[in-house]
Design brief:
27% helix, 179 residues, 7-stranded mixed β-sheet, alpha+beta
Amino acid sequence: MTLAPVTELRTFTTLAPARGDLLDVYAEVRAPLLHLPNYAVTAFGERIDRHATEPGFTAVLAYADGHPVGYAYGNTIEHGDRYWQRTSPMPADKYTERPAVALKEIGVRPAWRKTGTARRIHDALLATRDEQFVTLMVNPAAGDGKVRTLYESWGYEDIGQSQPSLASPVLTVMIRAMR
């Protein structure tokens, strides 16, 4: 199958205009996991509704032929944020003493994987940010470990683990400098 190039990246700082597209792409990206409570579309909707009210919310969506094919979103986290409080061991002060950006979700429709789309979305999101560090959480089992390896190739390194909710698997917390 030949894919049309991603023709547009759109940046949103409010959720309302992007919410439907985010939910649509999420449902396809996480389709094999939607039966699990933490991955249900309703659970994602609740999380993104909460995250969109937090400081520094930004989402970037990729579109091809007017249809959304991928997304990433994140927000600012400060010293003492619950994100850091749930990370074990507690990250070094150099990561937490100033605001950081937490990349909360990134996903690309299966047909668009291995096309550079995820990296393009990721980089566009980070280009909007002034923080010194970016952090994310990844399920170490995702893609049989390939997702974590991808993040390592983008410069992220492991700094701990977190279980954001009882329904969530234990996730690997990763971080990298912004520039």
